[in-house]
Automatic annotation (TrEMBL):
Protein name: Uncharacterized protein
Residue span of region Disordered: 1-47
Species lineage: Eukaryota, Metazoa, Ecdysozoa, Arthropoda, Chelicerata
Domain of life: Eukaryota
Compositionally biased residues, Basic residues: 16-26
Amino acid sequence: MSLIEGSAKKTFAHPSKPRGKKAKKKPSAEEEEEAEGALLEESPSKIAEDVLKEKMEKIQKEKQVRRQSFAAIA
């Protein structure tokens, strides 16, 4: 058989093309409440980030005071 005779050609989706998404099931009321609670609470990494920012600000203030005292002496 040749293509001229009109034979059907099988086509496949290319692997780089996205596939259809599966429908997600709706979360129950309990799962929704837990998800909302998790969003309201700060994550440990966010808390640690805030603590580090506060420490850096404190160090910067100490450096500034030290520079001013050296400038006053000179």
